[in-house]
Amino acid sequence: MKRIVLAILILLVIAASASAIWVYRDLHTPNRHTKHGQYVEIPRGSSPATVINKLADQGIIKHKWPLTFYLKVAGDSSQIKAGEYDFPSPISPLGVIAKLREGEQRLLRLTVVEGWTRWDIASAMYRIPELKLAEPTTALQLMDNVSLINDLDPQAPNLEGYLFPDTYDFPPNTKPEELIAMMVKRFRKEWKPDWVQRANSMNLSPRSVVTAASLIETEAKLSEDRPLIASVIYNRLHKDMALGVDSTIIRLAAVVIAIYPGAIIGGLVAYLIAWFIMPASPQTNRLQPAPTS
Question: Which residues have C-beta within 8 Å of that of residue 274, sequence separation ≥ 6?
Fold first, then answer.
């Protein structure tokens, strides 16, 4: 009888040991899945069982019960955070849990290129469906909110020049006006107080400096061209001369070409017509001098 009991105990120990080894290997073995690059949403308030079932259904983990057992023993189930997760492939169940502890939010990305005008930025924003813009002009109207820069430029008619070129990552529920505010905030971070003094010493307003920078970026084809173009523009500003810059006309031609792909001839015609009929602009007009204040 004792031998039978002993044999049963030995079998139980072997079974328990084998199970422990299997669970350990299952938790540490990376699993290949097809969901990498896609986002799996874990809603707020989801129970551990719901999360594990979803992960198994998506093929991110192979077996449910080892992970369920681990969470109960480790007591980590309360640390699972809601979010939208992109799980790499392969990934182990423990790697999945580590990611769920950290939390992850799907982010959208907008890259504002140096030299872009607010028209360019508005078009790029329009192409992001999550921003829910009916048309690019909707974003343009939001860029007329000069309250964001009143202290820097009380006379600014819009945010042209104050939308800093950078790459912006933001959650899908971000509103267009919040994204625009992020660009202005980034500009403020880069703008140095002593630059105002430097502008004043040159008899220029901050607005003139920002406008000149925008024109330099538009005109320069190569980075080494910028110092020369900057020198020409600032010298003409000091001499109260016409800038002779085609930026506005170039942008109009670009819009025509963008609307009608391949319409190079149409763009050239638009350039020539606009050169003659475009209203005077203190920043880009070829005929009128640009004011320095």
Answer: 248, 249, 252, 253
Length reported for the chain? 293
Per-residue pLDDT tens over the stretch 129-166: 999 999 999 999 999 999 999 888 888 889 988 999 99
User: C-alpha distances in angstroms, 16 versus 13, 53, 234, 276?
Assistant: 5, 25, 81, 89
Tokens of 167: 């790459």
Query: pLDDT per residue over 23-73, tens digit each?
Result: 889 999 999 999 888 889 898 888 889 999 999 999 999 999 899 988 888
Structure tokens at 171: 């959650």
> What is the assigned CATH class of domain 27-102?
alpha beta
Spans of all domains in the chain:
27-102, 107-191, 194-293
pTM for this one? 0.58
Q: Are 48 and 77 in contact (CB under 8 A)?
A: yes
